[in-house]
Fold each of these.
Amino acid sequence: MTAASFPCGMLIPILYASTVCEMVTSMELWPGAWTLLLLLFLLLLFLLPILWFCSPSAKYFFKMAFYNGWILFLAVLAIPVCAVRGRNVENMKILRLMMLHIKYLYGIRVEVRGAHHFPPSQPYVVVSNHQSSLDLLGMMEVLPGRCVPIAKRELLWAGSAGLACWLAGVIFIDRKRTGDAISVMSEVAQTLLTQDVRVWVFPEGTRNHNGSMLPFKRGAFHLAVQAQVPIVPIVMSSYQDFYCKKERRFTSGQCQVRVLPPVPTEGLTPDDVPALADRVRHSMLTVFREISTDGRGGGDYLKKPGGVGEARL
């Protein structure tokens, strides 16, 4: 029988039956796919507790992943609240309030000493050692009013966290372009004086995981001298007793945050900056070794003496 002579009335039932068969076949495949996904999910649930209790490295990665993910989630919650004011340093209070609980999730006790050293009613520059992203816990614990960090520009593109930081008035600097960084610092100096703002700077310039302090860059000290405002050094004790990136170790522990007496800059000139940076770093390093070996957070390995090093641009 040729196609031309094939009755049209028989063609329709055959096409309908073919379509039904395809639908049945498709429906039969779906339960298999869902079963596979369910098995994979159950396997993951079974493996996670085993990895958590048997592998410190896996626990480290789980904790760091949750830490970063939780901060991004909190930023999503903070953005609409901060957006009411627009870009405003007062929004930093919102971010601080939303992050204060994180230390409890990780069993980290933060002890603050010397908070009375903060000048009560004037601009100043805070300089602090920089060990890891966990510095946020100590920073939020002691962050004074109308104080914003100076951060690398890459943070601005860190999703919800970057937008939340921008709304909170965080100052972003492109460290690869020295001319732009100097220009921004000059603007910051004017902002310090005209808007009663304090800034928080990590003068090491990058995170330092080796349990000491890197040589200080001088930008923060040039800023303080240009604005003729005091420098308030803050030292966070070593995290080595509970956190070590190299060893993939992250447990509970205690960190001490020490606020040192302000260092005046009145009358100083740019020529005095190198000596000023060295002096501040030396005092901070001395305190760092002290609070990191007194049983309140740190590591006994820090008892070994080390050089102060030279400040750098």
Amino acid sequence: MDYSKKSPIATLSLFLLTLILILFSWNPLTYKLTSFPQKHSSNTTILISVPKDELQIALDKASLPNKTLIIAIINKAYVEPHENEYPTMFDLFLEGFWAGEETRPLVNNLLVVAMDETAYQRCLFRRLNCYRLVADGGDEFSGEKIYMSGEFIEMMWRRTLFLLDVLKRGYNFIFTDTDVLWLRNPFKRLINNETIDFELSTDVFNGNSSSKDNLINTGFYFIKSNNKTISLFETWYDKRKNSTGMKEQDVLANLVLKGVFGQLGLKTSFLDTIYFSGFCSDSKDVRLVATVHANCCRTIRAKVEDLKTVLRDWKRFKNRERTSTVDGTNRFRWSRHVSCIKSWHNETLH
């Protein structure tokens, strides 16, 4: 008998054994999948699994069951100390969650988006929910971008494009700059109304939350994902082509004034600075303030100095509130934002 050729039965047995080994060694848990229902004429539903990308995984991890989360975007300039002096901007941002009222649990719903590898590694070290946003040019957004410089404007548009992607994936979110201190849970101050699509902070509030004459600020806002808000962000991002030298906030302000929000059927509320304040317009009531934004300021160094002062003011107020039997609210005054005021007059910026 010629044993140099395998019999058909032996070949078939070897094939079946190999197939069994493959099936038992495959672990479906190593694949991150999501399922979408597909309807068929038989009225049965078949689940088709497709792989999740890294952003989808990060969004799912940070979001609440209703697909709502908090998003902050950082780069190296926000996580590295200026001239080796701590704290950094990112340190102060996180300290606000620690020192604020009912804000610590919100860190679990915070997604930190890093625009370079240094920022991403710092985020991971903090054990936060982190996502690495890769720019076309690598780490081109890693350093400090001086306000209204060409690189600053480009970085703001890249941010807008990313947030459009998040909306398209069906997520609602608060977007917050990292120069915003969260002193109280802002969700409690947002309008609990299903008809409102977009709640946008202001540099100066004119007293009317529906007025398009409010001076807006895109450093803090709450937006819901729907066809109207997606259309807004698409329109907004497309306008960059004809808006040379304009930052994305100014382009959005023009859309407000031209009535684009109304044309899209968008329901918007402009946030009162008594609750969502900033250096442009301090909150007049420390008992109500939820966030403090270091707006009307030109450099990170100046923002850091004045935000440290805001935290000291806040802790001083909270300590007085705990230890004094007399209401000291009427005597409370925010310190002047000295460094930010000076930042507009310095010819050489570091």
